Amino acid sequence: MKKVILALCCALAILSSSSCSLDSDEQNFQFTVLEVVSADFPESFDHNGIHEIEVTFTRPNDCTFFEGFEVTSPETTTRIVSTIGTILESDSCNDSLEEVSATFRFRVDYTDTYLFRFYSGTDEAGNATYLEYEVPVMQ
Question: Residue 16: pLDDT band by 50, 70, 90 thresholds?
Fold first, then answer.
């Protein structure tokens, strides 16, 4: 009986792994940066504290999905935050702007004021624009 169950489990594993192939050269999605509308910060940060930051961004259609945040720090207390999404390639996407919110946790390691820059789109000349928030740190 144990051999029959083992054989069935092996057959099931082989069948389930062969139904999905990653060998295809076709990619059915692409990454994109979503435009931020606003971010909700406290009046100040607590040094060594962890704060949840709520970010509201636009989803341009129903084939675009939120994936997460990319945070880079070009200077000690400056953070550039990009909201990353994926766009599924489909002919049946409904183009309707929708505002969506997500949060990320931020740990305050320094005592200087933090500057956050969120990508918010491009201007008429094609240059990136940012929403900026400065948050002082209480010790």
Answer: very low
